[in-house]
Design goal:
Layout (H helix, E strand, L loop, with lengths): L2 H24 L2 E2 L2 E2 L4 E4 L3 E8 L11 H21 L5 H23 L3 E7 L9 H19 L36
Antiparallel strand pairs: 1-2, 3-4, 4-5
Helix pairs in contact: 1-3, 2-3, 3-4
Length: about 190
């Protein structure tokens, strides 16, 4: 990994963990219970409300924090190894992976330290499940990565790429240029 990527991971991780501590303090979370009213960020649109997630997104794998921590740790190690050894990928591709890494580490921290993930961003107008900054980075960077892979990631464009001597000729003409596989005697 490059130094700027490490700085980005640490910055996102600090923002995620810091925001969770700040919101828990602002909402008066004591012994895992919110003691103060929700904080309205934008009235009837977004508010801060404390929630604990013992599973994955939308409550999948509920009460499986240990299993999710192990799976996340393995995925994060694989991502670090990929980033370390794969230096030729585009910067955009790499920064998407770095944001996924940082978001994954933010939630992994919560699972290891608390046994659950602390969520606090509640989107009122669509009644969306509560989430946190790590989830935002994971989601946005995954969408960016998918769009990049579909529309901008290019394969080998060299003139000889993809040519295999043993492969059959492309339809509708054969290797001799005859249409539909007909030879000169069929004409």
């Amino acid at each position: 990994m490059f130094i700027y990527e490490i700085i980005v991971v640490l910055a996102i991780l600090a923002m995620d963990i810091g925001s969770k501590y700040w919101v828990c303090s602002a909402l008066g979370v004591v012994n895992r219970v919110q003691t103060l009213d929700d904080i309205s960020v934008i009235k009837h649109i977004i508010s801060f409300s404390y929630s604990e997630n013992t599973g994955a997104s939308w409550g999948l794998f509920k009460d499986r924090a240990g299993m999710l921590a192990v799976a996340t740790a393995i995925a994060m190690v694989a991502l670090v190894v990929f980033l370390f050894f794969s230096k030729k990928e585009s910067k955009f591709f790499r920064i998407c992976l770095v944001m996924i890494l940082a978001g994954g580490l933010g939630n992994l921290y919560d699972r290891i330290v608390f046994g659950y993930v602390r969520d606090f961003i509640y989107t009122e107008f669509i009644n969306f499940p509560t989430y946190n900054l790590a989830d935002c980075f994971l989601t946005v960077s995954t969408v960016m990565l998918c769009v990049y892979a579909m529309f901008f990631m290019s394969g080998d464009k060299s003139p000889d790429s993809g040519k295999d001597e043993a492969s059959p000729p492309a339809y509708p003409s054969d290797a001799n240029g005859n249409l539909l596989g007909k030879n000169d005697s069929d004409k």
